[in-house]
Design brief:
With about 170 residues, the chain is an all-alpha fold. Helices cover about 80% and strands about 0% of the residues. The chain has one domain. The two termini are about 20 Å apart. This is DUF2269 family protein.
Amino acid sequence: MRKLGITRKRWLLTLHLLFSAIMLGVAIVFLFLSITAANTNDEGVLQACYTMMHMLAKTTVRYSTIAALATGILLSVWTPWGLFKHYWIIAKEVLTFFFIIIGPIGMYWWTLRAVTLVSSERGHAVLDPDFIVNSGQLRIGIVLQIVSLVGLFAISVFKPWGSRKR
């Protein structure tokens, strides 16, 4: 496979970092919106928080994840790192798979469920057991999303565990 020159590699790495930063930024926004939703008595604010989270899950989370995944694969394939040459890259691949389940898939369904429950039960959603369970799952998902993203960043910086022996 053809390898990238240093300038192209830097541009691809810049794009990868940009999309990864967007993913982390959106996860932090989800955290703030979920805290706001958990601490409000205003049903309009509750509806707005979950609607914004769902809109972000449908757009920004999905597209930034696809772009970060694509640029990460290209970086691995077009540089000497490879897809399976180093333990730290394999760890990132496993963590990325976990993130995709929690991020674009989990966030989409949890926020859709929250919007549906808040819309259908004006003023009573916070008392509905389904809403309480869904909100808890959403908060846990947000925390796991942030932890996995920070883990991905840390692994990228420290590159622990070295190369696999052939």
